[in-house]
Amino acid sequence: MTHTDIDPVLLDPTRLSIVSLLAATEWAEFGWVRDSVGLSDSALSKQVTTLSKQGYVEAEKGYVGKRPRTWLSLSASGRGALEGHVAALQRIVEQSRQAGEARGTEGAGAERNGAERDAGGGGTNSPPPART
Amino acid sequence: MTGQRPTPDEAARALDQVGQREEQAIGGGTSDALWVRLVIGLLLFGDLAARDFLGDDANSWISIGLAVLVIAYTLLLRTRRGSSALGRSARVDRKAALRGKAAYARWIPLVIVLLGLGVGLAGARLDLPYWHTALGAMLGAVVIFFAPALERAMLSAGRRTQHTTGTVRP
């Protein structure tokens, strides 16, 4: 199984939340991201610093009137990392689903074979089918 | 997580989380401040009501003024500072909002414009008294009270996010 696109930075649920939120926006105010994700100023600031160091998130500071504001946006590399991460997660889920279906098919086949043997004169003394 | 590789269950949860956060961004980043909606709604009402009560000269000036305000509003929305001043904390990425949308959702704005043109033409043809004023009151009320809900509905209509799994969990 390949999981080369799994991004270790985005394995953290909080960072994944921040990046996913920003992925649907062109930019968002720091306060809005903080409230949406449910973090404190310092906790979000720490996560943003980590994401900025990776080049995933860009922060721009400015003023609206006299009030200072910080706007966050997802960089192109951040967007690419999220897309790769999501694709890898989808592969994991899909492979697991296919494996589950294959096991279900095998189990049903084994039960059907056992029933056919019983009905075909195996008698009550015949051993039960071996289960793997 | 097991090392660097999530289990299928963790992966499914993470995918759900990504989808939910995208929906949250689209739903939460779309409303103007109440004062902005009040101003727009009242201007819309004033512009339409003026057609019933004022002469053609005044109407043309009012329409020009309104057009200038609409352009200024649109330009402000395109900048971070302008959007913040108008009470918008985030700008939804229209491409992200449209990605995976059902085809019918893309036609909703056109349908709304055509409905507006239809109502306008019908009103002009029937020549009902004060119909501009009535239409202005209705549109103004819609803008003031329902603009955020309408915008959210348009952005979310038929949206099927690519990031949700849609598969049976293992």
Average pLDDT number of chain B: 78
Give the % helix of chain A: 55-70%
The CATH architecture of chain A comes to Orthogonal Bundle
> How many separate structural domains of chain B?
1
Number of structural units classed as domains of chain A: 1
> What distance separates the N and C termini of chain B?
16 Å
H/E topology pattern of chain B: HHHHEHHH
Could you list the spans of chain A in which at least 5 consecutive residues all have pLDDT below 50? 121-132
CATH topology of chain A: Arc Repressor Mutant, subunit A
Number of helices of chain B: 7
For this structure, the quaternary state is: heterodimer
Category from helices, strands and their pairing of chain B = mainly alpha
**Could you give a short account of the major beta sheet of chain B?**
none
Radius of gyration of chain A: 26 Å
General form of chain B: elongated
Distance N to C terminus of chain A? 23 Å
How many beta-strand runs of chain B? Answer: 1
Describe the structure.
The complex is a heterodimer of chains A (132) and B (170). With 132 residues, chain A is of the alpha+beta class. Chain A has a single domain (8-112), classed as Arc Repressor Mutant, subunit A (Orthogonal Bundle). Chain A contains four helices and three strands; from the N terminus they run H-E-H-H-E-E-H. Chain A has helices at 13-23, 30-37, 41-53, 76-122; strands spanning 25-29, 57-64, 67-74. A three-stranded antiparallel β-sheet of chain A has the order 1-3-2. In chain A, strand 2 and strand 3 (67-74) form a beta hairpin. Mean pLDDT of chain A is 83; it is low at 121-132. By secondary structure, chain B is an all-alpha fold. Chain B has one domain (30-156). Chain B has seven helices and one strand; from the N terminus they run ααααβααα. In chain B, helix 2 packs antiparallel against helix 3. The longest helix of chain B has 26 residues, at 131-156. Chain B is elongated. Chain B starts with 7 loop residues before the first helix and ends in a 14-residue tail after the last helix. The model of chain B is unreliable at 160-170 (pLDDT under 50). Classes of the chains: A alpha+beta (132), B mainly alpha (170). Chain A binds chain B through residues 3, 6, 8, 11, 13, 16-17, 20-29, 31-32, 36, 60, 62-65, 69, 71, 82, 86, 89-90, 92-97, 99-100, and chain B through 1, 4-8, 11-12, 14-15, 17-18, 21-26, 28-29, 80-81, 84-85, 89-93, 96-97, 162-163, 165, 167-170. Strand 1 (25-29) of chain A pairs antiparallel with strand 1 (90-92) of chain B.
